[in-house]
Prior knowledge:
By secondary structure, the chain is of the alpha/beta class. It has helices at about 15-30, 45, 60-65, 70-75, 95-100, 105-110, 130-140, 160-170, 190-205, 215-220, 230, 235-265; strands at about 5, 35-40, 75, 80-85, 120-125, 145-150, 175-185.
Amino acid sequence: MTAIITVANQKGGVGKTTTAINLSAALAHRGKRTLLIDLDPQANSTIAFYDTGEIATSMFDVLSDSRTTLTAVIKPTKDPLLFLGPGRLSLAKLEQVLAGQFDAPFKLKDAMTPVLKDYDYVILDTPPSLGILTVNALVASTHLLVPIQAAYFAIEGTDDLLETYERIRARPNPGLKVLGVVITLFDRRTNISKDTHGQIRSVFGEVLFKTKITKNVRLEESPAYKETILTFAPKSPGAVEYKKLAGEVIQRVEENRVTHHAEDAA
């Protein structure tokens, strides 16, 4: 069964896209055939691999026009196990395009179904909002991963995200689970980061991943060279941390599968 992970936080600047890109690359590095789908109108996950002029059709076409299949827009990356469902600025129009359509929250799920057999993991990068794109991602997903910056007011806004998560679980996707919360932009030198880490741990407990993603200039530079951190600076702290995070993600997904099978058997 394919693990479909939405990376979401409606608070901007928390390393969400950086996490989506490099977690996808780290999963591919571990031998997992991985599809990264860019649902953010800013399309930063796409720009990390391709120039915008190279993208003729995107996830907007898939979600707004049933004649465009996901297979038709998927593009390869330099990693033979990592593939991209590209985004474009036009995704910002999707809300009005789908307005009034009864199946609007299910567009992504329907589009993904035919390709899931080809991938071990699908990572969904979402915009910093709880609109139709994030709802589509949550409806289509098996898991939710929340990046939180190690800064004051970091937890602000997560209540709304978790409320949306519970609403999705209540009806369209009861199988959705919180995979975990990952601390990003962590600066070991500052008391603020250390204090915030304690605060986040007290709120989320065991849901918090052990791996923290530290502030790292290499992570900021790599997209400009159309590379992930694993190829741009493979020995950097960012590369090491995302590989560790991928290991934790795989372990939790497998544990969830075992629990799910046990519940079904009972």
